[in-house]
Amino acid sequence: AGLPDEMPAFVDAATGKAPFPIIVAGRNFGCGSSREHAPIALGAAGVRAVVAESYARIFFRNCINLGLPVITCVPAVDAARPGSQIRIEPDDGRVEVDGQVFTTAAMPPFIIDMMRLGGLVPYVRTRLAASDEPGCAGHRVVHRDHGRCADLEEPGGAKPGVVEDPAEGVMVTR
Length: 174
Hints:
By secondary structure, the protein is α/β, with parallel strands linked by helices.
């Protein structure tokens, strides 16, 4: 496990950055990292994307939620070598390794938007700010039908702080 002996250290001690903007990995990458800290650390080190054979489910979703592109493409992983030139196009499902083009499933447009905005929180904030539904100035609920937005009131007229109602959606405050 880890980098081959002939590879430099993953993070340069002087800069704290990785000389590798794209990580190429094998099966079940991210296994054992159930918290957001692993993708946060990768991003802080300068990693801009990961291409792997497969991912641990929680790690995969944490990367998406934090805006770090994670691409599953076994043939691209097989073709990559240390020093390979790699380009990814998540919206097309294209991975180019040293001039060879491989295809994989394209990411859904909302996931692409989420990654471009920097993750789930900026994505939700942008969506809420763009809403012109009446009553959306304060506390809002993002409903499953992706179109309705409404103020909520607790008994006695008080506004709730944070409410999660699986039947209606997720309460988001700003």
